[in-house]
Fold:
Amino acid sequence: MRYVKWSIIVLFWALVAAFLHYTLPQHDIARISDTYEKRIDPGENSLFWANAATGESLNVTGRDVFFIQTRLNDDDVMVYRNEDTGWGWPPYFKFDTANLQAEAADLRSTSAAPQWVVIRHYGWRNEFLSIYPNVVSLRPVDGPDVRIIPWLNIILLTVLAAVVWAIYVRWRRFRQARIDPMFDDMGDNLDQAGGRVRGWFRRKR
Structure:
């Protein structure tokens, strides 16, 4: 039973960690090599695509999506999508997809004369499932060695840890004050009942 309990706990926190890793903003330092637009018809991977763009019909399944091709500072290729999040989830309230695509096109460069940019995004890249991280913002930087401190993530994770700890402390106090004494009383009553039953059997003998 102990293994089942810990398996459930580990699975729960693994799902929480995966959710936070997908949702919270991440930063990549990259060089934009190209930008393009492609018709997308989300299928089984529709969970990893944003809703229809703001102002468009929600009944349309297929739509044109902007993409940004890059090379990271370690020379790996990374492709991002550029979609509005609107008022949906994650709550980035992104409405400037077209403007962002124009900025990305203007910042294109070659390996001979690289222009490095910091790309702020959320999501994962998976070639097998054809999912792409979504760009939230980008800005040029002097070089690939610039240091990015994720202040927002630090603050949010600190607040989340404080909330979880506060809930855990209050639950522990409640359990010690209310639940544990109730089970102790039940155990005492069962022992007394068991003693009476054993006494009945002794009298019958």
Observations:
- The CA atoms of residues 162 and 168 lie 10 Å apart.
- The beta strands are 26-40, 63-72, 77-82, 116-122, 134-140.
- The chain has a mean pLDDT of 86.
- The chain is about 40% helix and 20% strand.
